[in-house]
Each structure stands twice: as structure tokens, then as C-alpha cells.
Please model this.
Amino acid sequence: MYAFAKLLSALSLLAVAHFAPEATAQSPPANRPTGGSICSTTPFLVESVIPANINDNGGELFPPQPLTTYPTYTALSVGTQNYTCGDDGTWAGSGAITYLYDISCLPLDHHQPFTSFIAALWDAAPPTVTAADIVALTEKVNPGVGYGIHYWISDPVNATSGNIYAKWDFSQSERMENDTNKANAYLVAGESANVPAPNDPSVNSNWLVEPVLVINGTKVGQLADEVWRINSNGGQAPNTTCTPGTDLQVKSTLDFLFYGGAWADTIF
Model:
């Protein structure tokens, strides 16, 4: 573990220098509210990096642009996609557990290669290294980049329905420490777009658009109004038969972009 940690820390420094040699952190305005991204997200027009043929392979179609022009947050996600083997002997998604950190200081066109770089480290990590270790080590190189955690919960309306929903929680992050609204720095989302990954879709998980869930007219969380999941590396279950009732964790590294929400006024 120690040797791998030293390697990861060294490579993380090299990665930032390699993937964004010209990147400079723009200082936020002095009167900026708490809780936002470290660097400006106004250069991030996600439609400029979405392949033109994204909707050519079926699925629920991607929209031409997100809900708002600029993301409030851009996050690298490192963790696992989780599956359970059904009675028919095939793998079915049962959620995910991933750790998130801020990549707003990297130019948008560098997000994909940087994410793939981290994915290679995560895939090569020994079993003793967890996704939380990867994020913790990155924090040592770049303090304050940790956002929070992403996982799935049972249906908040009907817990016995068998449905699950994605949740992101930033409420414990360092940047929310002095924010009076930090208790609402989360969201639970549904799904409005779901398409195969543009590259190697049998290995890389689908790209998604996930709007905040609304129950009886109230949004479930205020972190964002819409989330885009792109640049996936890994995460798909193998196309093999399995023993009913068994569980599987597949390493996954990808990017999330969060739009709108209570912290949209922090964008600069």
C-alpha cells in the first residue's frame, strides 16, 4: 500500500502538469458565496465535448445541451458500480459507491484523458487500496479538492418498489464547512437520458442525464437540478452468466457535471 501511495502521489502531480500545463487557477471574487467549485466553470460548455453521434446507438436520447449554460460543479468519480445476480443468472445493477473530487481547475478538454489516467491507476491498484484511498491521496497533492460521496438509495416514495435512485452528498465536504445551507448539499435524481458509452460500451458504463427527483412539488436535495454523467471508464458488468444472489463490484471512473441548484450563484 505505501509503495503504491507514493507512486500515485507522484503520478498525480505529473498528470496535472501533463494534462493542463497551461492551466492557471482563476481567483474567485472576494464576495463569492461559500460552497462552490475551486476554479471557474464558465469555460465548460459540455456540448462541445459530447460526440456528435452520441444518440446513434439507441437508448434514451441525450439532449442537445444541459439545463443551464455552465455547471456549478465538475467532479471526477472513483469507485465501483455494483451488481447482483438475478434469478435468471444475469447481472442487474444494484447501485454504486464512488468518491468525488473537484476537477474544475483542469480545462474541459483535458477531463477525459485525466479521468482515463486516474482510471488506469485505480484499475492497477492492489485489493488493499480503496477508492477512498485514491481520493485521500489526491487530497494530499491538492488539498480541498474532495467533494463527497455518490451512492444509491431505495425508492424514497415506495421503499418496497425495488427501484433505486442515485444520490450525491457534498454536505460533509471541506468547502461546505461554514455554509449555512450545507444540510441540503445533496440531491437524489431520476434519469432522463441513458445511452451507451461512445467508446467500448461493453466495458464502459452508459452516459446519463439525471434530473433531480421531485416529490409532491419539492426537490429532493438542493445540490443541483441536473447531473450529466460522461467520460466513463469501466463500470459495466461482464456479459457472463452468474449464480443467483451473488454480488459483484466493478471498478468505475467517470465524470459528473452538476447544473443549477442552490449553489449556482457561486459560478464565476
